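dude i think i finally got it to work??
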Amino acid sequence: MPKLKDGLVKRGSTWSYVIRVPDPTTGRSRPLWVGGYPTESAAKIARDEARYLARRGELVERSQVTLEAYLTRWLDEHAMTVKAKTISGYREALTGYVVPRIGRIKLQSIQPATLTTLYRELAISGGREGRPLSPGTIRQVHRALRKALNDAVENDRLIPNNPALRTKIPRLKPSTPGQVWTMAHLRIFLASIRTHRLYAFFHLAAYTGARRGELLALRWSEVNLRKGTVTLKASTDVIDRERVTDTPKSGRSRTIAIDPQTVALLGEHRRQQDEERDRLGAAYMDADDYVFTREDGQQLYPSTVTQLMSRFIRDHNEPHQPGRRGHPRETLPPPEILLPPARLHDLRHLHATTLLRAGEAVHVVSNRLGHADPAITLRVYAHVINESSPLPAMAFAEAVARLDHEDDADDVDNADRDE
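look at this
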């Protein structure tokens, strides 16, 4: 049997070392053997480094776990600590784009170059039907992978460092919310749907900048018509075909003011809802007291209002007389002003850009939008905030002019005293 000397031993043609490390399950000391070194010197250097890292609690033992196995376990464990929508995004990014391509590689074999190659392949043919995957989606993949691998370093001690931190990712052009609609477009849109039972939903979306899910989770107990406020405490989404209600995206609730017109409109909407309740009687389902519901009181699905937005725009641009028995549908003349294609979320952007262009403080706009930090508002709407405006220049010039006027007045007073 080969003789062990100072933790080093030759086995066959290679050298091995052994050190004692604490067992993570029992806390007791146990031997850790590592071999495969070509020379005694190489094994000695590796042993000394292992001893140093073990004393610091940073030693990473060799593991055969694959990236796929680790990510699968990480997603399951992480699901208990983050929102359902967040973990759904992580799962889609990792199982959809990472695992099929590099999942079989051992976790400890993942290098920055491995991930750079992955991102390059995704950029070329990672999308549907072999089309390029957008830089934005690749960055989402990168963020999810970076977080998972960071836990592999910090919490699980499976790798010594995070290769995602040294990975080259595709350059992403700064995106800015496009000004799809003007205020004139908004007025035309709202006027065209004024008689629809969910008109108040689209009005409130435009006049508060609230997210779709926040409005769908809004309850009457969170609406104060006397004070003119709404409190957004939750958000509704559909994840894996199940409706999920959670806290807002920022993780905290917010109370925002609404104007008198919106107050009156919500009062009208509530009276309409009461009429629907009276008409259906026991068949009406209003246990959760939601502000925006189906006619039978059940909570709306997010896709319902999203699809309605598209349908409203199409109906405005392509007006028609509905067909009846024996009478086909009749196409009507188009309106003078057509509505450009827009998403429901664009009402939120229109609200923000309108306030910022009107000179509203960034932190006020940030609170209305429910951003976790005003810095997010600054970054997303920098193109609006940085627009050239004569107001700051005029304010500075007027301040200097006032100072010059005060100096001139002092000179006159001094001259009078000298005389």
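The two ends are 115 Å apart (CA to CA).
im so relieved honestly
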